[in-house]
Amino acid sequence: MKHIFNIAILALLAISLSFCSRDNRTRNVRYMASTDMYTPVSYETYGTNPNYTNGLDAQAPVPGTIFRGEVPYEIANTEEGYQLALKTLKSPLEVNDANLANGKAMYTIYCTSCHGDKGDGQGVLMQREKFLGIPNYKDRAITEGSIYHVIMYGRNMMGSHASQLTDKERWEIVQYVQKLRTDLLK
């Protein structure tokens, strides 16, 4: 029985050695029919690609296209644009608890450090005198449209937050700022 076991081990060892290649640099079996998988064609990162007739321009989006889920904001970043937004722009979202809760969460992340928890302009950065003159919401004649416009483009010392927030999140913050302003006016 012991001899049979030794013979079986020697047979397995002989079979396994027969699969080994004598030249370690060549493959015994070629899995891909195309040689491109072994020798890929590389292109310069920002160079022209011969697969496109005009280089990188063919890869740019078509003029006038927008990202999926984005709504274009066509009011200009000017004083006239601000006044237009102040008078005409209205929120597409209904005021409800879910939108206010999300607005509060986004406000806490992006706005509280300057405008404060209550919207009184007494945020941490104001208290530490990093930025002075942050307005109190009750002292401003603001509307949904003006708040949204300022979030989109920024105003005075405040920068734009358009790249950090989706369209819906901006409108939720607008609802929450309106609530804070109402609370301050009481």
Give a short summary of the structure.
With 186 residues, the protein is mainly α.
Structure description:
With 186 residues, this protein is mainly α. It has a domain at 79-185: Orthogonal Bundle (Cytochrome Bc1 Complex, Chain D, domain 2). The chain has seven helices and no strands.
Give a quick set of tags describing it.
186 residues, Cytochrome Bc1 Complex, Chain D, domain 2, 7 helices, mainly alpha
**What would you call the shape?**
elongated
The count of DSSP E runs of length 2 or more, i.e. the number of strands, is 0
The rounded Rg comes to 32 Å
The fold-level CATH name of the domain at 79-185 is Cytochrome Bc1 Complex, Chain D, domain 2
**Termini distance?**
98 Å
Relative helix content: 40-55%
Quaternary form? single chain
Main pleated sheet: none
Beta strand %:
under 5%
Can you tell me the CATH class of the domain at 79-185?
Mainly Alpha
CATH architecture of the domain at 79-185: Orthogonal Bundle
Report the structural category: mainly alpha
The helix-strand sequence is HHHHHHH
Q: Count the DSSP helices.
A: 7
Mean pLDDT: 82
Present the secondary structure layout.
Layout: H1 2-18, H2 79-88, H3 97-110, H4 112-115, H5 124-127, H6 144-153, H7 167-185
Helix pairs in contact: 2-6, 3-7, 6-7
